[in-house]
């Protein structure tokens, strides 16, 4: 079996980060250089970079780590990343950690062993271990969708507060007072969206009903469970905001399963530009996240870092969402 960068680190007695820094052309202490070069010779370690002479080497490969490829949102963003980089001559290695913190860290180690030039990460773990490890290896890193508190990185996100504030505000303006929100189980996007929902209620002096605040996984099953909960209440909502692509699909399925009519029995605002949105009747109202634009922004930012441009670090690119009100929301006339 061919030797890896991890083997070089073990034989030299140095960290993977130090070995990676040397192999990618960075400066290390003279004693460390000697140890690394001796280990390379002993192991006959020959990644593609060595064929170019160990200095200023590039693999023209980018790693992408995501929690799961079952998420439509993630798949669209990753596809845009891959397409943009491919046009510039870069290959992409896509890794899904299957919602496992240890697997996420292992995937980072795997990509660094493969000598990727940079990594784009949709964080799963909120511990930041994966971020610290990647940064310790001197590998350019850009996060998308979420940031991890206390761990400084470049990032591409949406304005999550506004993403829920605007649709909540619109529903209130259309006469709704019993408004539910279905939000996710991660630490970054979900709390931003919940804050936006609460902000709109407070601004219009609408009482917050804790029963209408429904936290579920960002999955189709999460949307199904949310609708079951909300319509098992003695006083169900008149409107619901569902804050992810896959949850929206699940919610729509379960609304039909409960024999509810949209918008007569329930008004709904979903997330993202579902192919379903224009195919159903009434047409689905939605908050559209610029998924492809986010992928391209992440790829462009990583490319700048890989080319040595470190200005404005950490740079956080915030994309705006768009609200599209269609036939799935009705006006309610408030009695005086």
Distance between the termini: 79 Å
Q: Strands of the largest sheet, in order across it?
A: 2-1-3-4-5-11
Number of distinct helices: 12
Beta-strand fraction estimate: 15-25%
CATH class descriptor name of the domain at 160-289? Alpha Beta
Largest sheet entry:
6 strands, parallel
Our Rg estimate from Cα atoms comes to: 24 Å
Question: In CATH, what is the homologous superfamily of the domain at 160-289?
Answer: Response regulator
Helix content: 40-55%
Description of the structure:
Keywords: DNA-binding, Repressor, Transcription, Transcription regulation. GO terms for molecular function: DNA-binding transcription factor activity; transcription cis-regulatory region binding. InterPro entries: HTH_LacI, LacI/GalR-like_sensor, Lambda_DNA-bd_dom_sf, Peripla_BP_I. This is Transcriptional regulator, LacI family. The chain is α/β, with parallel strands linked by helices and about 325 residues long. The chain contains 12 helices and 12 strands. The strands form 2 sheets. A 6-stranded parallel sheet has the order 2-1-3-4-5-11, sandwiched between helices. A 6-stranded mixed sheet has the order 7-6-8-9-10-12, sandwiched between helices. Helix 5 links the parallel strand 1 and strand 2 (about 90-95). The longest helix has 16 residues, at about 70-85. The chain is elongated, with a radius of gyration of 24 Å.
Search tags:
single chain; 336 residues; alpha/beta; 434 Repressor (Amino-terminal Domain); Rossmann fold; six-stranded parallel β-sheet; six-stranded mixed β-sheet; 12 strands; elongated; transcription regulation; Transcriptional regulator, LacI family
């Amino acid at each position: 079996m061919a030797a890896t960068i991890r083997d070089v680190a073990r034989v030299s007695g140095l960290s993977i980060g130090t070995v990676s820094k040397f192999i990618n052309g960075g400066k290390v202490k003279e004693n460390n250089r000697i140890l690394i070069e001796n280990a390379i010779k002993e192991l006959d370690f020959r990644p593609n970079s060595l064929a170019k002479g160990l200095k200023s080497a590039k693999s023209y490969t980018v790693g992408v780590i995501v929690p799961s490829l079952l998420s439509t949102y993630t798949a669209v963003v990753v596809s845009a990343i891959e397409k943009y980089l491919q046009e510039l001559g870069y290959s992409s290695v896509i890794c899904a950690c299957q919602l496992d913190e240890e697997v996420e860290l292992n995937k980072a180690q795997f990509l660094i062993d493969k000598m990727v030039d940079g990594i784009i990460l949709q964080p799963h773990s909120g511990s930041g271990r994966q971020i610290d490890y990647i940064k310790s290896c001197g590998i350019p890193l850009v996060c998308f969708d979420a940031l991890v508190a206390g761990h400084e990185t470049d990032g591409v996100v949406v304005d999550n507060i506004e993403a829920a504030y605007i649709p909540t505000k619109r529903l209130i303006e259309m006469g709704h007072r019993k408004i539910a929100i279905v939000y996710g189980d991660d630490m970054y996007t979900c709390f931003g969206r919940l804050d936006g929902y609460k902000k709109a209620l407070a601004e219009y002096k609408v009482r917050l009903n804790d029963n209408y605040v429904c936290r579920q996984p960002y999955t189709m099953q999460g949307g199904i469970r949310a609708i079951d909960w909300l319509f098992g209440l003695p006083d169900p909502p008149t409107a619901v905001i569902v804050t992810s692509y896959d949850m929206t699909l699940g919610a729509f399925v379960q609304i039909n399963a409960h024999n509810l009519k949209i918008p007569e029995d329930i008004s709904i605002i979903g997330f993202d530009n579902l192919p379903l949105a224009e195919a159903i009747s009434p047409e689905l109202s939605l908050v559209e996240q610029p998924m492809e634009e986010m992928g391209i922004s992440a790829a462009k930012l990583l490319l700048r870092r890989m080319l040595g441009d470190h200005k404005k670090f950490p740079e956080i690119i915030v994309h705006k969402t768009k609200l599209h009100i269609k036939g799935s929301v009705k006006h309610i006339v408030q009695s005086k």
